[in-house]
Write a structure and sequence with these properties.
Radius of gyration: 42 Å
CATH class of the largest domain: Mainly Beta
Largest sheet: 3 strands, antiparallel
Distance between the termini: 124 Å
CATH superfamily of the largest domain: Head domain of nucleotide exchange factor GrpE
Low-confidence stretches: none
CATH topology of the largest domain: Nucleotide Exchange Factor Grpe, Chain A, domain 2
Structural class: alpha+beta
Strand order of the largest sheet: 1-4-5
Helix content: 55-70%
Shape: rod-shaped
Mean pLDDT: 86
Number of helices: 3
Length: about 180
């Protein structure tokens, strides 16, 4: 091989090596960019996955809460209708004369029926609200009348209850109708 050919071959090898070096530099830069993009996409995927898991947990908790409330308050309308029966039993007991011997067994029957009825309501989460002597609470009581306050009945205190209020599992079923000291 001539010197010229050797020089040409060396120049070609140098140019090829230069091109190869430039290509490798570009390729390394592209690889770094691609690796950074992969890391960024992995972080986004992990974030999306965590958010999705949190959303699923929130949906499950919300569904559990709704089912629990449905179980607790499914009896709301039914229990509300039964309160009239309790009121009528209480009215009957209040007007019956316990001194009258002919009514004694009737009064005992009313009292036993009322007790069983009240116990059954209590068993299913229905609680009576009898606010006599307590401070007026607009969330639990409905004021139907007012009377002047006295030493025995300070202002904003329930003097009497015309009708008991009831709650179902802590939720107001019916407010108590009361007279409030003013």
């Amino acid at each position: 091989m001539s010197e010229q050919q050797t020089a040409d071959s060396a120049q070609i090898d140098a140019e090829t090596e230069q091109e190869l070096q430039e290509f490798l530099e570009v390729t390394e830069t592209e690889v770094e960019v691609l690796n950074a993009r992969v890391a960024e996409l992995e972080a986004q995927l992990k974030d999306t996955q965590l958010r999705s898991q949190a959303e699923v947990r929130n949906i499950q908790m919300r569904a559990d809460r709704e089912v629990s409330n449905a179980h607790k308050f499914a009896l709301e309308k039914f229990a509300g209708g039964l309160l009239e029966v309790v009121d009528n039993l209480e009215r009957a007991m209040s007007v019956a004369n316990p001194q009258d011997e002919s009514l004694k067994s009737l009064i005992e029957g009313l009292q036993l029926t009322h007790k069983v009825f009240a116990d059954t309501l209590k068993k299913f989460g229905v609680e009576a609200v009898d606010p006599t002597g307590q401070p007026f609470n607009a969330e639990l009581h409905q004021a139907v009348a007012t009377q002047p306050a006295s030493e025995a009945n300070p202002a904003n205190t329930v003097i009497t209850a015309f009708q008991k209020g009831y709650t179902l599992s802590g939720r107001l079923l019916r407010p108590a109708m009361v007279v409030v000291a003013q």
